Amino acid sequence: MSEAKEPSASRRAFLTTGVAAAALVPATARAKDDPAITGLPSWTTTPGEGVDARPYGTPSQYEKHVVRRNVEWLTASPVSSVNFTPLHELDGIITPNGLCFERHHAGIAEVDPGQYRLMINGLVDSQLVFTLEDLLRFPRQNHVYFLECAANGGMEWRGAQLNGCQFTHGMIHNVMYTGVKLSLLLKEAGVKTSAKWLLAEGADASGMTRSIPMEKALDDCLVAFKMNGEALRPEQGYPVRLVVPGWEGNMWVKWLRRLELGDKPWHHREETSKYTDLLESGVARRFTWEMDAKSVITSPSPQAPIKHGSGPTVLTGLAWSGRGTIPRVDVTLDGGKNWVRARIDGPSLSKSMHRFYYEFKWNGEPLLLQSRAHDSTGYVQPTKDELREVRGKNSIYHNNSIQTWHVSEKGVVENVEIS
Ligand code: MTE
Ligand code: CO
Q: 283-334, pLDDT tens digit by residue?
């Protein structure tokens, strides 16, 4: 892979970033004869709805297309399925609650908070059962974390397939959680020294259970009841879910009802037949918990084509790592021949999404867009070929390879693969 460096003089016209302030973007609208400026639309002449019209706010009627979507052929039944976050429509780093992708194995459990209980049992000094009210009396913390399903990008292992970053990368959301540190609750119960593992169990009909090593449980896990300031949505595990920062989404048990401490992993379904990686040798790699650094350009992308023609263009995307922050993202417009450094904007938080931008003047020629994340451990996001060399082609989960978008002269964008 070539090093990220400033483009050579001959390529400057193609990759200009430093546009003069006065002419950053040419104004397209003109006052004279433009009814949008000379006219009086109804919203200017007539008062609108009152404060009683929208007790719980929803987006503008003109934003109806910004929704979670699914891929019909992916699963047989919607109660054991997935829908995807519309990443191409979002900006900043926070995913709005109503747009967080959903993955459930037995539909959405509608848990009555009055009947909610969280039990801690197994290798503890005293078994405990908490009500929701009990949990609200412990000291709280707030943290922004991404949750990525291990299957994100799973359909792309063998070749470019789905046309849109919503579908190739949308099994992720990034939310501020409010909750109680798991270690605090475990200490209340008194962890026996023989306890090395924790089993987290959900209250939904899927019987979701995952084994989590004690070091992680005592480190940064949260028992969360709020997302972006309000109660968790039913889709996300109302009233309480487990937050396992940086680790694969499957472990973030929703509708959390029980925590059992034991001396070995349980080897349940979700950590044996699922969420393991079948290598070329026939050996299946288990317990791939940490999500490796990854990034994607969200615009331009297949669902967000360039409609304005050549000239000033904003490229933007997301980068994240389960191991820390993202100090650097490189982007290329020519399929990896030349890399330039993108501008990271907004909060840079550990195990959270980062927003990057690259402003350039498009000359109207076809582009091959890619982004490459570097995380705070020094790890660099691999190409698809590099990842396949290590992992083979049998995998479904844990695909963190570099994504390529082809932009045509017309600004149409497609998911492609280059080697
Ligand atoms: N927890 C329970 N109880 N039931 C589930 O089906 N799905 C898991 C995990 N926790 C699941 C669960 C999977 S595979 C993922 S990727 C995340 O929840 C998805 O979280 P989300 O629906 O908030 O996006
Ligand atoms: Co998942």
A: 888 888 999 999 999 999 999 999 999 999 999 999 999 999 999 999 999 9
List of E strands, 107-255: 117-122, 128-131, 141-148, 172-181, 197-202, 209-213, 222-227, 230-231, 241-243
3-class DSSP state of 407: strand
Distance 2 CA to ligand 2 centre (A): 34
Q: Indicate which atom in ligand 1 lies nearest the CA of residue 80.
A: 6
The class that CATH gives domain 294-416 is mainly beta
The class (CATH top level) of 82-285 is alpha beta
Confidence of residue 23 (pLDDT cuts 50, 70, 90): low
| This model's pTM is above 0.90 | yes
- Kindly give the distance from the C-alpha atom of residue 368 to the centroid of ligand 2, in angstroms, as a whole number: 30
CATH 3.90.420.10 residue ranges of the chain are 82-285
Distance 100 CA to ligand 2 centre (A): 13
Q: Kindly report, as residue ranges, where domains of CATH 2.60.40.650 are found in the chain.
A: 294-416
Rounded to whole angstroms, the Cα distance separating 329 from 379 reads 12
* Alpha carbon nearest to ligand 1 atom 13, residue: 250
